[in-house]
Amino acid sequence: MSVDARPRETSSEHEYRPFYSAARCIETAQRPPPDGDWFPREQSLRLPDARGPHPGPHRGTGQLKPTRLPEDAHLATRQRFDSDGVAARYAAGKNLRDTWKNRREMYCIESALAGIPPGSRVLDLPTGSGRLLPMLLARGYDVLAADFSAHMLHQARALVAQHSASGSPISFVQTDVMRTGLPDRSVDVTICNRLLHHYPEAALRRRALSELARVTRERIVISYFSNWALSALRFHLKYFVQRRAPDDRIPIWPRVMAADIAAAGLEVTRRLSVRPGLSPQTYLVLRPAR
After folding, report:
1. Residues 15-45: pLDDT tens digits?
2. Residue 224 forms beta bridges with which residues?
3. Is 134 helix (H, G, I), strand (E, B) or coil?
4. CA–CA separation, 169 vs 142, rounded Å?
């Protein structure tokens, strides 16, 4: 019996319907959203709890649909990391563990910063528990550490106090990646590490990238999860076998990410993979499109 591995058109922008051949994962056809935001920037949506269980296939259709609307992923991500316990665990896992993966991620980010001179204004958003801050300060940057979670910022301040000299050029701000409140072109470089994979919808990724493009003069470094990795195939196969639709940390195809980047008025200048062909985590160096 053969398995149809062709991409199929779906009836909803939010359907998750991967199809597989024996060798690789085939992406469901995706149509980019129309120009502009799906949600007005000043509108705050009141939505059901995004963390509830998925109801499974729709009766009579066999189709899997996430329960979340696009804005849910942003709200759920903020809520997930905005607690003292989560921030403490995150700091213990990221700041204190000298793992191969952490070292490789740091290597990718430092490579992406090549050519950025000391004294440059660098925005780290989200800074999380501050894992990147000692490295950024050691390179002589004027650092703006930003995060939505006050608990994460508390951990970041503690890390800087422990590892960096007193009077280091760093400031902290609690803000949202969708609306930073920063002036246009107010930083030289922005680093957005380990955030976009929490946004499965193109609308959210484009909103975040557009805001980063607005405040950045020279270079943006982002990470995302790419489908060109064995662990990405394993991810999709797991949900396919379980007949569930994932709503977080979903790998996407590079061409989908490229469309989001172009929609934000940016272009890719460099690609860096944590573990090429194995890990989905990929870093991209961006600049304003010319």
Report:
1. 344 433 323 333 333 333 343 332 233 333 2
2. 282
3. helix
4. 5
Least confident of 8-17, 102-111, 248-257: 8-17
If you count them, how many residues does the chain have? 290
What is the rounded average pLDDT for all residues in the chain?
80
* Strand (E) or helix (H) holding 266: strand 266-273
Among residues 174, 190, 262, 266, the alpha carbon closest in space to that of 222 is found at: 190
- Distance, in Å, from the CA atom of 48 to the CA atom of 69, rounded to the nearest integer, reads 10
Q: State the pairing for strand pair 281-288/216-225.
A: antiparallel
Predicted TM-score of the model (pTM): 0.76
CA–CA separation, 274 and 69 (whole Å): 30
Give just the sign of the alpha carbon dihedral 30, 34, 35, 38.
negative
Beta bridge partners of 244: none
Backbone angles phi, psi at 5, to 5 degrees: -105, 15
Measured distance CA(268)–CA(158) in Å, rounded: 34
Q: How far apart are CA 18 and CA 25, in angstroms?
A: 7
Structure tokens at 25: 């994962």
